[in-house]
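Troubleshooting log. The previous structure file for this entry was overwritten by mistake, so regenerating from the original sequence record. Sequence copied from the archived sheet and checked twice against the printout by T.R.
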Amino acid sequence: MPELPEVETTCQGIAPHITGQRIRQVIIRQPRLRWPIPDNLPQLLKGRKLLSVGRRGKYLLLTFHHGTLIIHLGMSGSLRIAEPDSAVQKHDHFDLQWSDGKRLRLRDPRRFGAVLWTDEPISLHPLIANLGPEPLSEQFDGVYLHEQGKRRRIAIKQLIMESKTVVGVGNIYANESLFRAAIHPIRPSNRISAARYQTLADEIRNVLAEAITQGGTTLRDFLRQDGSPGYFTQKLRVYGKAGNPCPGCGTAIHSKSIAQRSTFFCPNCQH
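Regenerated output below.
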């Protein structure tokens, strides 16, 4: 699944191409995504000027004077800038054609993504209203994370992957952050000191910032908007490396399922 760095990379990649452009045409080839694409979207958007491209959690936000288009990439979705004569592929479900002829194209093989519209303030939308702070914002730090964790007794990996706690810390980056912070992923959230929470918050920020700088993590489905891969995969220390030696101590990396998500850790370095 595209995680926060992949979505941020996409946001940064498409924004220069479409900000300030007007929509010439909306093309809906497959309306049945996670939720149906509004059938009146072509009428709502035709001729409208895009004011900005932003992100909240894993949601891409295209802002117009009269509302916001919300795009989620789901499990396998991606957005591309396509030339006017670019061939349409099997899973290309949605296009925004702009005044310069280029197209913003959504490809979503598994159809778990979403294209939605709201004319209300975006902060009030049900998908956005209850999200926790952005991990790269000033609102997210060790003090905040400690307050969230000390009142509960769940695995720390579960806590940092909850979007109501902090947005965008998906499975890959949760694994990597916990390894860097030397915290075992199943340690109860109320048995972690404030100092260790500060270390964890710092490492979450570091891992995500590095991944954004390097263009996201390439797994099976994600490529950057220009078609080239991200490179953070080369720096993964534990994710997907079960049985490999720990880069810190040489102990074999273990794996187990936590809340139905693959989890990778060093049983020696993380405690």
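The mean pLDDT is 92. Archived copy saved in two places this time.
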